[in-house]
Amino acid sequence: MSKVKKQNHDELHEELAREVATLTEALQRERADATNIRRRHDEQIAQLRTTIKASVIEEMLPALDNFERALKHVPADLEGNDYIKGVQGVVKQFESTLKDLGVERIKTIGETFNPNIHEAVSADGDGDTETVSEELQAGYVVGDRVIRHAMVRVVRG
């Protein structure tokens, strides 16, 4: 093989190696971009599911509130009544379903007041520490998202 042909062959080989390296790098970038797009899409879908779930649950909470209010005011002579037991069963089923959906009731009475999860209706006393003394309406969270703040009374001590 002549010297000129060998030089052309080597140059062609180097040029092809550079082109392969460039194309390989571009392919790797495209794959990384596609992976990032899939990851962002999955995160957005999960976020949308949580938003929809929270919205539906928020719409249903007043019904649960009314059942719980009704059970707090059962006349003494109806305490063991099958109808009352049925309503209690409905409330337990509702709470179980919420738990299965990942919804948790916010802890209130005896807890330190937290404005991120509690809504204080009134505060009595003087002092630096604020403790929840009464729950007026239950609050709920799903994951880190507050569906509804717990409406509470606070005592300062």
Question: Which tags fit this structure?
Answer:
157 residues; alpha+beta; Nucleotide Exchange Factor Grpe, Chain A, domain 2; three-stranded antiparallel sheet; three-stranded mixed sheet; 2 helices; elongated
How far from one another are the termini? 97 Å
> How many beta-strand elements?
6
- The value of Rg in angstroms is 31 Å
Helix content bin: 55-70%
The CATH class designation of the domain at 105-157 is Mainly Beta
- Record the strand order, biggest sheet: 1-4-5
The major sheet is characterized as:
3 strands, antiparallel
- Beta percentage is 15-25%
Q: Which descriptor suits the 3D outline?
A: elongated
Mean pLDDT: 93
Poorly predicted segments:
none
- Summarize the helix and strand pattern as letters: HHEEEEEE
Describe the model:
The protein has about 160 residues and is an alpha+beta fold. Helix content is about 55%, strand content about 20%. It has a domain at about 105-155: Head domain of nucleotide exchange factor GrpE (Nucleotide Exchange Factor Grpe, Chain A, domain 2, Roll), CATH 2.30.22. The chain has a 3-stranded antiparallel beta sheet. It has a 3-stranded mixed beta sheet with strand order 2-6-3, with no helix packed on it. A hairpin with a 2-residue loop joins β4 (about 140) and β5 (about 145-150). It is elongated and about 115 Å long. The termini are far apart.
Write the topology of this structure:
Blueprint: H1 3-72, H2 82-100, E1 103-105, E2 118-124, E3 130-137, E4 140-142, E5 145-148, E6 150-156
Helix pairs in contact: 1-2
